[in-house]
């Protein structure tokens, strides 16, 4: 089996940076309670700015697939390849532009390069790692020679008032309201991409992929982040939006077309994630003292603090000064976030050959956790 | 040389903590799948479920003070500090069941009903295992058991107590057994570290503590799975 390398990364963030004070002007206002919770949530997540593929009139400036394709081009531009060299495209996203067909078809269409193999991964944040793992394996076993991996989101479309108004009465309970507002004030738009090859760059740094591990804990945890079912119906999937006799409008009126996050369950799931991290240490895959850089995706600063508290209690903490993130300036872009983080990390430098980079992408959706270990190589 | 020994000891203590943390997260995962906990987590708990929970926990809570006291009597003089720790622990536990009974009565049950209830199948297994372990010389594996039981008190009970109170619209005096445990989350981790440093000398000792914790977790979950199965 061949060694596989991340040889380039690209990012696309639409429009201009949007500060906290201008979010409502773009997304639109729901009511006073929403604005109050928004201020609270922004204090918790500590995100200072983000990007939306939407203008002040609420008009879309791009599509999810469009942002993925722009990030992919940016990645190819910084690689030693041409777009025509790519023979494998794996995409990750939470929700593509269309219900049918798959997102990878849309991204390939937007890229417009020749025939190639595609794989669509639909999950939440960890769909990025699923896509990266499929590319890694395809390259490793000789099924592909040059792979593009994308992660992209257009979360903002969920957050316009029109998505909440049909079922505003369903948000009366504070927990349910919080479940809706947390994501509204946390997620934003963007695309990220990687170029992977079975050989390092001829010039400049490459990151060798040592291993990728992904674990689902859906056997024990209920659904935590969801859309397509009303929050109070979330444990009865038979009541999902597409089963609504009154069609999509009926589903919207029942509160099934909102993006929600169960904040209480999330806290329990975090402990499950840390358990998987400890299991990797126990098996010798991760030696905390040998890790030089940590790129951990998390949705809010308060959750980072929770993770650090648990890691410290278990004696498995990696010095905080080794942690890199750009959550606060580029926002939480879901499945794009990890690639956007890696792109900035790769470009800014500050790493040396032989150093180990531990990447962690958890997904609250239904408790997924993924890890990737990279080693820096310099041609 | 001395430094090497203390470094080795530190590594063993860290490995134990890691093992315990994994045993804990695994246990929490098991709890998520227990029907009564799943009902609670989904906001569907009924007052009958809560009464059944109290009734089923009571017999094992009564035993709690007893097995720790028995364990204390099997600790030799060389480890008298751990013996005092076990004894102190037994004292703080041994009145807990009275609070639990009061909660049961405050929720419409009778003293006679809760006192006459048999242990369920899971409680039988859990109690038998605890007394078995406590009857062995220097039963330090029970430090792992106590880690799990303390975790239940400081993390789960308070989380469950708050959820039960809210879902069923209860007052503090009806859920005090669960809520009160959360107040006892002092620095028991630091204390555990000191005790592990005294008792964990090799890999086998680490395994004994972690294995005991895992078994206790499994049997505790079994006790909740076997609600009313006597």
UniProtKB/TrEMBL annotation, chain A:
Keywords: Acyltransferase, Transferase
Molecular function terms from GO: acyltransferase activity, transferring groups other than amino-acyl groups
InterPro entries found in the cross-reference section: ACP_syn_III_C, Thiolase-like, Thiolase_N
GO aspect biological process, one term: secondary metabolite biosynthetic process
Record domain Beta-ketoacyl-[acyl-carrier-protein] synthase III C-terminal: where: 286-360
Pfam annotation, one family: ACP_syn_III_C
Highest rank taxon of the organism: Bacteria
Keyword Acyltransferase part of the UniProt annotation: yes
Thiolase N-terminal domain: residues covered: 66-155
Protein name, entry field: 3-oxoacyl-ACP synthase
Organism: Aquisalinus luteolus
TrEMBL record, chain B:
Gene3D superfamilies: Heme oxygenase-like
Top-rank lineage group of the source organism: Bacteria
InterPro entries membership: Haem_Oase-like_multi-hlx (IPR016084)
SUPFAM superfamilies assigned to the protein according to its UniProt record, in alphabetical order: Heme oxygenase-like (SSF48613)
Name of the featured protein: 3-oxoacyl-ACP synthase
